[in-house]
Amino acid sequence: MDPLITPEELDSHQGDVHLFDVRWALADPSSGRAAYEAGHIPGAVFVDLDADLAGPPGRQGRHPLPSATTWAATLGRLGVDPAGLVVVYDDSGGDVAARMWWMLRSVGHAAAQVLDGGYQAWVSDGRGVEAGAGGPPRPTVYPVPAGFAGVVTRDQLAGRSLLDVRAAARYRGDEEPVDPKAGHIPGAVNMPISESLDETGRFLDPDALRRRFADLPESPVVSCGSGVNACHTALAMILAGRPMPDVYIGSFSEWSRCDLPVVSGDSP
User: Fold this and answer.
1) Does any domain span residue 92?
2) Around Cβ 248, how many Cβ atoms within 10 Å?
3) What percent of the chain has pLDDT over 70?
4) N or C terminus: fewer CB in 10 A for the chain?
5) Residue 64: which CATH number?
6) Are 239 and 169 spatial neighbours (Cβ–Cβ below 8 Å)?
7) 13 and 120 belong to one structural domain
8) Structural domain boundaries enclosing 227
9) In a domain, 29, yes or no
10) 19 C-beta neighbours (distance < 10 Å), count
């Protein structure tokens, strides 16, 4: 299944769709729910990155994965059935929505898509929205998966090619708004997620993405600040026709909390 769906395709979809609004902002994590209640795509259910798509933060990072049992319970509470189509969106180019897409794909739920261009694309096309808190979905029982596939831990990074997809200023260490150190993991190469998007916040076409990733080794590991934006690059690589890369979920938020060396500047 194509990892992206357009507003036109979503609007004309004839079958049942589990639609989720995953808006969130690093500077104000509560802003997503407020934005949802101010206006969202009709039928969408709000999903909170911190509460629904991550386990408790700590030394292992700001957004560690929940257990497989907890993730299955969350999907059941959200009304997702194993064969159901899930569509997720945000208002930031898919950089948060891709986390839920990746979590679904990682446990074998193939019917998952990100709305290309997100909420802005839906609104700019003149499609309707609704306000309010929304009603609760009808719960289901989602089977507990064996676990998340494609996950690399800190101890498994040695000898792997590591991509850091944070903004260049954070990679260089010019600024660090949330983590205890500034800079990047030694050896990591910077490939900001913004360079996978066009000026409207939609993904570049597959040919452009193939050119972007052409010089990468066959099996890189993708990292970011806390294992969220890394999933956006995983999606972009799928669009480029590459295999799903492994993801270092702990990312810099874990690395920087373990008193490990970091590097500043543009070089790996």
Assistant:
1) yes
2) 28
3) 100
4) N
5) 3.40.250.10
6) no
7) yes
8) 151-255
9) yes
10) 20
CA dihedral 24, 29, 33, 38 (to 10 degrees): -80
- Distance separating the N- and C-terminal Cα atoms of the chain: 35
Tokens 């099996």 belong to which residue? 219
Token pair, residue 135, equals 């009603």
Q: Is residue 135 part of a domain?
A: no
pLDDT of residue 15: 79
Q: What is the CA radius of gyration of the chain?
A: 18
Q: Would you name the residues annotated as active-site residues?
A: 224
| Number of separate domains in the chain | 2
Does pLDDT of 261 surpass 90? yes
Give DSSP secondary structure letters for the chain. Answer: --SEE-HHHHHT--S-EEEEE----TT-TTHHHHHHHH-B-TT-EE--HHHHS----BTTBSSPPPPHHHHHHHHHHTT--TTSEEEEE-SSTTTTHHHHHHHHHHTT---EEEETTHHHHHHHTT---B-SS-PPPPP--PPPPS--SSEE-GGG-TTS-EEE-S-HHHHHTS--SSSSS-SB-TTPEE--GGGGB-TTSPBPPHHHHHHHHTTS-SS-EEE-SSSSHHHHHHHHHHHTTPPPPEEESSHHHHHTTTT---B-SS--
Name beta bridge partners: 247.
Answer: 151, 222
Convert the pLDDT of each residue in 11-58 to its tens digit.
999 778 999 999 999 999 999 999 999 999 999 999 999 999 999 999
Beta bridge partners of 164: 190, 223
Cα 3 to Cα 257: distance, rounded to the nearest angstrom: 33
Contact 222, 163 (CB under 8 A): yes
